[in-house]
Specification:
The complex is a heterodimer. Chain A has 27 helices and three strands. Chain A is mostly helical. Chain A folds into four domains: 94 residues, no CATH class; 197 residues, no CATH class; 133 residues, no CATH class; 143 residues, no CATH class. The chains are: A mainly alpha, B mainly alpha.
Chain lengths: 672, 107
């Protein structure tokens, strides 16, 4: 890759500007940095906003018991300075003032600057519409007011009042305006190549510090506006979306619930007010238009895409490890890459989430690494790329990354897909695709039957309902232990009617009650598999019974919500509407329980009609003859893995899915 | 601690003769004795709360607890940032729109 020296210099300057506030200090003042220990805590508490991060770091180079934390609720005068030290267990938490209003501008400038690294496409110039310069600042300033509860706790300057003296809102408006101008300018000649750089979204996560906003969402709304201005509003996508919007607004429950966004900050509705509902409907509508615009106008270059995947996979490993070795780098990773959570603090493998920071969940990063491996294999196997010497070490690092994610499902599915592809190519002349797929499905069913044979049929078929019942608010006056015994007895007797209708009427969620009705039908259709039995067996085989059980216990949609959902990225009703009593250890009760299935996420957002529409369109695409048949394997790999993860809630995973769709649907892919 | 002493002195002045700061601990009955010779000093905490100090010892105690004579709350960071962002926006707009005009002119 030819890298322009001026560009490198520019990026160095941008990084320097971003980090400058943490370096600035007056070495001649009376506020000297001290070794952080029990004795100096009081000193740091009394010298807030005077000692810079650099000073403290230099003084504590060998101190491993320190963690640097961003303190958003600090004023501009404290930016990059220590705002306090606290001791939690044996770790000293050093708070660094990082006011979101300023960091927002700095992060915009840095990340837009990084877009300069995208290769120019001289053949394809896009003239961006200037309408976004006014519309987007208005929309995103409106978000501040619509998600007031979120921003109130994030920024001391926050003020939702619409007045001429409210500098806070003007800062947001102007920052977005600057963003739009930068994007219009930077992407003018680079837009056609943008799709080839999607892998980097896994390195630069792009969540703005102290904001429920993501850089890529901003970017795609710009593209969305350009799509509408160029292709009009009357596409089937917009008409369908408008149809859903009617029901989302119509069925909206204006309740005072609030979701603190946790690890999905930037891509989730924090509030349940009508204004935030409108904001998210608007934003996701524009993002979908943005995806379409990118799909239509982009030119996929396989060689470049593969290389970018390998580089990103390696860089995530490298920066992840550096962050685990240095507490300062861990903080800087969080700040410069726009992470939602701080990275891992140890190089030891942690069950659960080894690549925390770069990804909201280990599963999504496992899918990313799995995607890279499978993508590279397919391109190499079908001669779409030329292997280079440097590919090997990068590939090994990526494989190591996958191993560290502990994502067994991704590893297993890659193995199956690789074997299937090799087998199919070998047998290509002898059997048809249909027979091959049927054989694979039969093999999978036989394997599942073999694995499931250690369970009793009753346990397999009703395991999910049983788990959901354990987490429901049954027998309110009994302890969890007694509740479990009673519920177990009813399930063993097969008397679900008494449990749900007589013993605990109206205590279960509407979803659980309806699933019980489906499980115990009035008319039994022979040879027609019960959908609850299939879901329950699948859940047990892939170890999702508890998580899906909690989802069923917690989600209680109305009739309209069942068919049309709650609205895009609206989890409030799922999280807080239904009263449950989770049968979990006390320390886990306050955890965030996401559905652990993108299908369930889609069900919450768009209901059954959304699921069927998505499913129908996906099947159509897969069935359609494509010039890139091999990439269908990638799409199926992602879709299968999405079924058991919440990847639909993560911006970069959604973009990866979009890329997989584009690879299959795009008629022309370069370097073939 | 020397550094702490310097911070206390910068906020409260030099300790009167014969008085040095010793942490009174968590005694709820402890009362700060007024010093008529001490000129009242106003201290602020990080949230903008105000407290008037009537003795050097009281002042030293508050400073040790994170209070300061610098009223950070009065620092109008949002105003400064607003004018900075406004300036950048104006410059970026001028560059962007003049560039656009040039392009149209060349066409």
């Amino acid at each position: 890759m030819q890298v322009n020296k001026n560009r490198i210099a520019l990026i160095s300057i941008l990084f320097f500007i971003l980090l400058l506030p943490f370096l600035l200090h007056n070495s001649k003042d009376i506020y000297n940095p001290l070794t952080v220990d029990d004795v100096s805590i009081g000193y740091y508490q009394s010298t807030t906003c005077n000692i810079s991060l650099l000073e403290v770091y230099q003084e504590n180079l060998n101190n491993q018991n320190i963690r640097y934390n961003a303190h958003n609720y600090a004023g501009l005068e404290c930016y990059g300075k220590i705002t306090g030290v606290d001791k939690v267990d044996n770790t000293f938490i050093v708070s660094i003032g990082v006011n979101p209003s300023l960091s927002f501008l700095l992060q915009i400038v840095l990340w837009c600057g990084l877009l300069l690294f995208i290769r120019k496409n001289e053949k394809k110039n896009i003239k961006f519409n200037n309408f976004s310069l006014i519309l987007l600042p208005l929309i995103f300033t409106f978000q501040q007011i619509s998600e007031e509860r979120f921003y109130l706790s994030q920024n001391k300057y926050f003020n939702p009042e619409l007045s001429i003296s409210n500098y806070y809102l003007f800062i947001i408006f102007l920052s977005i305006y600057i963003f739009c101008i930068l994007i219009n300018k930077v992407l003018e000649k680079r837009f056609a190549e943008l799709i080839n750089y999607i892998p980097f979204t896994f390195l630069i996560v792009g969540t703005f510090n102290g904001f429920n906003l993501n850089f890529y969402i901003l970017l795609f709304t710009v593209l969305g506006i350009n799509n509408i201005s160029k292709n009009g509003f009357s596409s089937w996508l917009n008409k369908g979306y408008l149809f859903f919007t009617f029901f989302w607004i119509f069925s909206h429950k204006d309740t005072y619930t609030y979701f603190d966004t946790d690890k999905i900050r930037g891509f989730i509705n924090s509030s349940n007010t009508i204004s935030s509902q409108i904001y998210w409907i608007l934003i996701i509508g524009l993002v979908l238009n943005g995806f379409y615009f990118l799909y239509v106008e982009s030119e996929i270059d396989i060689q470049l895409l593969v290389r970018n995947f390998l580089i990103t996979g390696t860089l995530v490993n490298v920066f992840g490890f550096l962050g685990s070795l240095s507490n300062l780098l861990n903080f800087l990773n969080f700040y410069t890459f726009g992470q939602n959570k701080y990275g891992m603090e140890t190089v030891r493998s942690i069950a659960g989430n080894t690549w925390r920071g770069f990804s909201a969940s280990a599963e999504s990063l496992g899918e990313f690494y799995g995607f890279i491996i499978l993508f590279y294999f397919l391109c190499f196997y079908f001669n779409k790329i030329e292997a280079r010497f440097w590919d090997l070490p990068l590939f090994v690092v990526v494989m190591f990354g996958l191993y560290r994610t502990n994502n067994f499902a991704a590893i297993f599915s890659i193995t199956i897909f690789v074997l299937a592809v090799i087998l199919y190519k070998k047998l290509n002349q002898k059997i048809s695709m249909r027979i091959f797929i049927v054989s694979i499905l039969t093999f999978t069913i036989v394997l599942a039957t073999f694995v499931g044979s250690k369970y009793e049929y009753e346990n397999l078929s009703s395991g999910l309902l049983y788990e959901a019942s354990l987490h429901s608010n049954f027998y309110r006056d009994q302890s969890n232990y007694s509740k479990t015994i009673l519920i177990t007895k009813f399930f063993e007797d097969g008397d679900l009617g008494t449990l749900f209708n007589i013993e605990n009427p109206e205590s279960a969620s509407s979803l659980l009650r309806n699933l019980v009705k489906i499980y115990t039908p009035q008319i039994d259709i022979p040879l027609f598999p019960n959908i609850v039995t299939i879901a329950s067996t699948t859940a047990i085989l892939i170890n999702r019974t508890e998580m899906w059980g909690i989802f069923i216990a917690k989600y209680s949609p109305s009739l309209v919500e069942t068919f049309f959902g709650n609205g895009p990225y609206q989890l409030n009703n799922y999280l807080y509407f239904q009263e449950v009593r989770l049968d979990l250890p006390e320390e886990k009760l306050t955890s965030l329980f996401l559905p652990h299935s993108s299908l369930a996420d889609l069900f919450i957002f768009t209901g059954l009609i959304g699921i069927f529409t998505f499913g129908y369109l996906t099947i159509l695409l897969i069935k359609k003859k494509s010039s890139n048949e091999a990439f269908k394997v990638l799409l199926i790999f992602l879709l299968i893995n999405f079924l058991k993860s919440d990847s639909l809630l993560y911006v970069n995973s959604v973009m990866l899915l979009f890329l997989a769709f584009s690879l299959v649907a795009k008629d022309r892919v370069f370097n073939e | 601690m020397e550094e702490n002493q310097a911070v206390i002195e910068s906020n409260c002045g030099v300790a009167p003769e014969g008085i040095s700061y010793v942490d009174p601990g968590n005694d709820p009955n402890f009362v700060f004795a007024n010093d008529p010779n001490f000129e009242t000093i106003t201290l602020y905490d990080i949230e903008g709360n105000v407290a008037n100090m009537n003795s050097w010892f009281e002042c030293a105690h508050y400073v040790s607890g994170g209070w300061s004579n610098a009223q950070l709350i009065n620092f109008q960071g949002d105003k400064i940032l607003f004018f900075s962002v406004l300036s950048i926006a104006v410059i970026v707009s001028l560059l962007y729109f003049s560039n656009l005009r040039q392009k149209y002119a060349s066409k």
